[in-house]
Design a protein that fits this description.
Length: 791
Amino acid sequence: MELNEKSYRILELPAVLEMLADAAVSETAKEAAMAMRPSASIASVKSLLGETSAARNMISLKGSPPFSGVKDIRATVSRADKGGMLNAKELLDVAALLRSSASAMAYAAGERDDSVSAIFYLFNAIKSNKFLEAKISSAIVSEDEIADNASSDLYDIRRHLRIASDKVRQTLNKIITSPAYSKALQEPIITVRNGRYVVPVKAEQKSAVPGLVHDISSSGATHFVEPMAVVQINNEIRELMAKEKQEIERILRELSADVADDGDDLVNDFEVLAALDLIFAKGKLSNRMDAAEPSISDDMVIKLNAARHPLLPARDAVPIDVRLGGEFDTLVITGPNTGGKTVSLKTIGLLCAMAQCGLHIPAADGSIVTILNGILADIGDEQSIEQSLSTFSSHMTNIVDILANCEEGSLLLFDEMGAGTDPVEGAALAIAIIEYARKKGALIAATTHYAELKIYALTSPGVMNASCEFDVETLRPTFRLILGVPGKSNAFAISDRLGLPGEIIEDARQRVSNENVSFEDAIAGLESRRIELENDKLETSRLLSDAHNARRVADEIKKQLDDERGKAVENAKREAARILEDARRTADAVMDELRDLQRRAASDADRAMLNADKAALFRRLNEADASLEADVAEEDAEGPTRAPVAGDRVRLRGLGTFADVISVSPDGVLSLRAGIMNITARSDEVSIVEADVQPEVKRHLARSDAMLREVAASPEIDLRGMAVDEAIPVMERFLDNARLAKLEIVTVIHGKGTGVLRQAVQQCLRQQRGLKSFRLGRYGEGEDGVTIIEL
């Protein structure tokens, strides 16, 4: 509908679609982006938004798939299907498309996350044909060159061509270097005329070099002569060149037939990749705008939280909260000029249109849009001298068309309703137009300066006032949209601040009717009360945030204590095991020596030695016991840091046993639980177990954050402009990230230049482990300027 198209232009939807087209790679996806229009099907819109969300999630995880090889090959396939012979460029475009198909399949391999399942069906629809891609790539070097190995016959023909050419050059070299011909030659060089090797001979000496004249210079001083000695060889070369041309045509026809045989799959892959290119462009645009997927309402409800106009710089745009539908179907926005009323109107209409195109909207989570049957806008001044249209007439012409096309489920946007004519009549017309549209079931948002419309919004059910906030002290609009409060024009205050004489302002005040003065004063009172409530709300939010932060800190401290308690238990178990092991080893040693002593005691002659050994044995036992007591004493040396309380973890001095404090009696006796045993102890018999684990926790969190940041990897890296010693560590880090992200094929861009960086990159890759293969790029991939790596 032409009226809808006009409204989309007014709302600047084409400018947003141009941003979308810039994010796409293929020309087909760019054209599709510019042709997008809002859908009126709720199922279609939900599907489109789901695809955009899936693409954005995949971009966050592993970057965007490569779409540089996606070229429209439908006409090429059609011509091949009709028996036509494709040229080298067309066949290379087919090979590039097939490479993109394979890359897209590899990109999506292994993905089974529900958050990206909305576009699985597209990746699964890709056919690809690695055999045909390899056949074309191996046969065609570039648009102007067919590879020698394209066929055995072509290889043989070119080998004979090289031999014949070398033979001609050798013969001609003998002529141009021979003293016998030096005076006859214009220059001692070999050149080509009409596809045959010749030498330049002076016109007056042409008889000195027998042969065929193929050309004469423009001055007539030089004849280009083919010596008779090479005529036969040149004839052979011409025949071989003709055979070469025929063989190349045969190869191209064979490849063209292969393309025709696989034509349906090629067209399918192109269309699928173009669709994916557009979807991932929407994901990129969502990232760029910091946008979010809105919910789709089955009812006529629009709710935008912290909505921003997508064409305004993010740092300058002031978010607005807007509701329309449900309790009220009409929003009347008032306020001073340049306060943001028109931007608010455009934001409402543009974000609804974007959502129905399947685009994320620059608004906070929880935003809701509905499926509109049409978005009709009358915004801006379209007065025309040629058509004898005044401001009022141009507005009214648009409104007449809008009302004629208005239906249930439409969104109508009116800027400065009733302006350009008598205020009383204009206000009455504006109210009548709004009522007419409401009866048809439309949602309406309108801006105005008329007090009559403010009163109408205050007194009519289903109509809500809204105002654009203005700071009179600074004479600057805040651009915030406030629902429920009508706005003031602030004409007197602004004029006073700008320096208009006070007596003029006072005279103007006297000329305003008492009703208007009372109404404006009421609005001022409401605004003052609103600001107070807003400040109270901000203070409440701050206190609530502080409470949440305090709770979070307390939870972290509790978690740290729990972790430390667990560590203390583990340490106690390890210490107990060590003591038991030492005791077991000592007991074994004692038993061994006792048995030895018994054997030696059989001899009276050894009695003295037996007594000495016994003394040494008891000395060792005493040393082991003293060592154990020293360990316990060292641990008990520290005095109590504070009195134990219920819930503390303590260690029994002298025993090294850990226990939990169950309760503390008034006289300081502690009830403890150690494992399955309940015991009592005095405060001076225990030590409180406390330790600060905060540094270790922070280090663990930092390591986790670092690992998470490194998971999102790009499939390509650009090293151009870097020195070798700078580029190699960057590439190695890139390869590590690619492995973490489970990428299979990545691209390193090093440029052509002198080749130093390329050689360093390939030398480094030869030493890398975990690489399946690497190669220089082919036509369409960047050729010698890139290296393709398969992990």
